[in-house]
Amino acid sequence: MTSPEVKNTPASGIRAVANAAWARPDAVHLEFGEPDFDTPAHVVEAADRAARTGQTRYGPSAGLPALRAAVTAKLARDNGFPGVTPEQVVVTAGGVGGLFAAYRTLLSAGDEILVPDPGWPNFSTIATILGAVPRPYRLSPDFAPDYDELETRTSPRTKAILINSPSNPVGYQWSIEQLGQLGDWAARHGLTVISDECYDQLWLDNPAPTFAVAAPEVSHVTVFSLSKSYAMTGWRVGYAVTSPELAAGLARVQEVTASCVNTIAQHAAIAALTGDQQCVAVMRAAYRERRDVALAAAQRLGLAVTRPAGAFYLWVSSDVEAQRLLNETGTAVAPGEAFGSAGAGHLRLSLAAATEHVVRGLNDIAQL
Ligand SMILES: Cc1ncc(COP(=O)(O)O)c(C=O)c1O
């Protein structure tokens, strides 16, 4: 018999649209957040070399020492976060692997975690599948934190708060002051902050600050990923940064669930983090250009959209149903309610697609 925890974990509302779209060869795919770039050649070559030279065995649960060292150098270089030691780093199967290990380490059955609404669906479903309880918190109208709302959602069973910057689905980016304030609030309530920074390099206006730099004294697990920054979604490499004690917990979870992350992919990740970073800048510039074209098109069409400061999504206010949009126009987008009850009346378009597809998607929404 399937356990109640698994039975109660809903399937993604994005997948329902995607499955229907895959059945239509003419569909324009704007439903998933997946870069349309290829993984940079030097990264693929590093994997090829690793596989051919026998780097094909199990590695340590927390990740290859060379990758953990590369992560600490990247944090100093790209996140203004020096002084992290390899013992604080756990290499995970994408950002989602880091989130799962963090939730499993911090939460027991019945414990609660505050999750943003709207927010990426797995923030809730990881809790549900573990028998913990996601408590969605609404954001203020401009998607800034709302402390009255956070107070009402917090209970004696609350152990952690999830924050996400730059955010999926709205592209909101927290300032360093906002992160510091959230850190003070979390510390006052005895909560650990799980900071999802999987889009850390996909800031579109100004570099995205890191929670642990803004609130260095506050308990945190910060989750990063190579999926989006380096167009490596299928490689499944991310990493979590936390205290050495919590890192040992995360590594234990990984030992039990995956043994370790794919060794070949870890060698590719070393090449990505230590190699030429021009590829990241090129992709960031492309997403920025698509965002600006999409914002101009939305304005021309009279669509109300949120201007994303980071990540690669456009959050559109619209009562058009995603399924109807697909049926009638062939454009697949993510339904807002897939991201929580606050998402109702919205659609999310991926900007990680060809500009003409994004513009066509906006046209289709405006015309229905
Ligand atoms: C906010 C956020 N966090 C984490 C992830 C996980 O991505 P991955 O596991 O590929 O790193 C995603 C993927 O869409 C995401 O949007």
Characterize the structure shown.
The protein folds into two domains: 4-39 and 278-367, Aspartate Aminotransferase, domain 1, CATH 3.90.1150; 57-274, Type I PLP-dependent aspartate aminotransferase-like (Major domain) (Aspartate Aminotransferase, domain 2), CATH 3.40.640.10. It has 368 residues and is an alpha/beta fold. Helices cover 42% and strands 16% of the residues. The strands form three sheets. Strands 2-8-7-6-5-3-4 form a seven-stranded mixed β-sheet, sandwiched between helices. The model has no long low-confidence stretch (mean pLDDT 97). Helix 4 packs parallel to helix 11 and helix 12 (278-301) packs parallel to helix 14. It binds pyridoxal-5'-phosphate.
CATH topology of the largest domain: Aspartate Aminotransferase, domain 2
Helix/strand-derived class? alpha/beta
Principal-axis shape: globular
What integer value in Å does the Rg equal? Answer: 20 Å
How much helical structure, as a percent, in the residues? 40-55%
